[in-house]
């Protein structure tokens, strides 16, 4: 692609992307009834972009077709461009960019780039970037975390390019300190060889979190951290890893179907204490994760989904959290159940991961310190303790089984106030009838703008 117009300094200054706990906006207004388990001091500058972000944005705009970069710079104010997440062009459709709206909890917002459909000539401007090699349909911009992906028509010969998605990659600093209290949270898990699963929908920030986790762990001279980079989104697509992962060892996968092989190679050849993996999606990768866990190596990985039960019910990935299968109860056991059922679902095995964090938005995370207890409670239809993580604090919340997922309530009294994981709390399943009644009452509470959360006034 031809070089784009220079940015002429519009990116000057680091962007502060932190947003504090705005409970009214996020649907967590509880009239002071919630239980705060722990608070911590947030970084003085909040969550900020990595120091090299401005230079990388200049590289991106210099790489884009000149007409497109000039139009974006002229059309959008700096506040839009510094929060740019994606540029999308599709043949016959109006092109758009996707930006993060931090006034709305960091949710993505689509904005039209111009008021007419894209032409084939405009789409083809990206063809030179791939030098005719479009088999992988994605390519990184060297020296950055940005990526260009193609949409093609596989049944046409030659294969035409129908669309282009430019993904803006950026590293953040202070995210883990803001949301969990600092490196101690990660070190405590690492020293106890406890693996952490990060669950979230696409675009919610899972890879961004992994990148900072790698940087934090790599600063500990007693830990050897290895990053297995499936699509080169964690550390870029160049020959050298992006500085944002610190001194962690970097193993790019190349083709995504080779990830399980590289995961096994990492544990066999790199003597790791921690392996970081992005996007576990296949049975073979689940098997590789099990191999890593059996070697006593900590694994920190991401997986697509909204809540823990959604991963549990996934045929390919369910074993990450213990899996489930149908069992037949005795008459006495069935009689003790509220539904009196003999055929029920039970956890099938030990989870590969010990703890889980669900990323629901930039400033709203749910932490499950003990996955197997959360899974057992869910399958038994019981509520259990979890933690709502917001900038600067952890709030006790109840995980309530609902329609193959979890709903959450912060308006309840947690059963266990004991501290674990440097104050992050201990998760305990609620088995008593009075707690069943409480969960039932909470399920009837007022819903929020996120179906996975229920707030009871």
UniProtKB/TrEMBL annotation:
Where does this protein have compositionally biased stretches of type Polar residues?
A: 416-425, 448-457
GO MF annotations, alphabetized: ATP binding
Q: Where is this region: Disordered?
A: 408-457
UniProt keywords, alphabetically: ATP-binding, Nucleotide-binding
Would you say which domain of life the source belongs to? Eukaryota
UniProt xrefs under Pfam families = Spore_III_AA
- Indicate the segments forming the AAA+ ATPase domain, all copies: 192-348
Record-given protein name:
AAA+ ATPase domain-containing protein
Species in which this protein is naturally found: Pseudo-nitzschia delicatissima
Instruction: List the lineage, top down.
Output: Eukaryota, Sar, Stramenopiles, Ochrophyta, Bacillariophyta
């Amino acid at each position: 692609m031809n070089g784009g117009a220079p940015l002429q300094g519009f990116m000057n200054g680091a962007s502060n992307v932190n947003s504090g706990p705005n409970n009214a906006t996020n649907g967590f207004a509880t009239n002071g009834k919630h239980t705060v388990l722990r608070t911590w001091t947030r970084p003085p500058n909040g969550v900020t972009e990595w120091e090299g972000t401005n230079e990388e944005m200049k590289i991106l705009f210099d790489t884009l077709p000149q007409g497109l970069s000039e139009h974006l710079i002229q059309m959008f104010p700096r506040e839009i461009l510094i929060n740019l997440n994606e540029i999308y062009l599709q043949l016959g459709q109006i092109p758009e960019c996707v930006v993060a709206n931090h006034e709305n909890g960091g949710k993505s917002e689509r904005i039209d780039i111009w008021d007419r459909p894209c032409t084939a000539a405009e789409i083809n401007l990206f063809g030179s970037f791939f030098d005719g090699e479009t088999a992988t349909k994605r390519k990184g911009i060297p020296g950055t975390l940005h990526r260009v992906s193609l949409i093609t028509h596989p049944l046409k010969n030659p294969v035409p390019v129908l669309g282009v998605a430019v993904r803006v990659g950026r590293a953040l600093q202070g995210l883990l300190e803001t949301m969990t209290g600092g490196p101690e949270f990660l070190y405590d898990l690492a020293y106890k060889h406890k693996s952490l699963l990060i669950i979230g929908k696409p675009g919610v920030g899972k890879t961004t979190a992994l990148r900072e986790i790698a940087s934090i762990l790599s600063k500990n001279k007693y830990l050897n951290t290895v990053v297995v980079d499936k699509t080169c989104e964690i550390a870029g697509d160049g020959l050298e890893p992006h500085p944002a992962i610190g001194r962690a060892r970097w193993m790019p996968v190349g083709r995504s179907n080779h990830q399980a092989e590289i995961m096994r190679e990492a544990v066999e050849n790199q003597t790791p204490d921690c392996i970081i993996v992005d996007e576990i999606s296949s049975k073979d990768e689940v098997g590789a994760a099990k191999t890593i866990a059996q070697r006593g190596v900590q694994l920190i990985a991401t997986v697509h989904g909204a809540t823990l039960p959604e991963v549990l019910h996934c045929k390919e990935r369910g074993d990450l959290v213990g899996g489930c299968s149908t069992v037949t109860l005795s008459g006495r056991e069935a009689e003790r159940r509220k539904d009196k059922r003999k055929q029920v679902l039970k956890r099938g095995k030990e989870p590969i991961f010990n703890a889980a964090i669900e990323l629901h938005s930039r400033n709203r995370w749910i932490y499950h310190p003990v996955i197997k207890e959360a899974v057992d409670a869910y399958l038994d239809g019981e509520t259990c303790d979890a933690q709502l993580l917001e900038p600067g604090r952890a709030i006790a919340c109840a995980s309530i089984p609902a329609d193959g997922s979890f709903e959450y309530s912060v308006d309840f009294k947690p059963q266990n106030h004991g501290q674990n994981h440097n104050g992050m709390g201990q998760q305990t399943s609620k088995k008593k009838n009075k707690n069943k009644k409480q969960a039932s009452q909470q399920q009837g509470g007022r819903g929020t703008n996120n179906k996975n959360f229920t707030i009871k006034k």
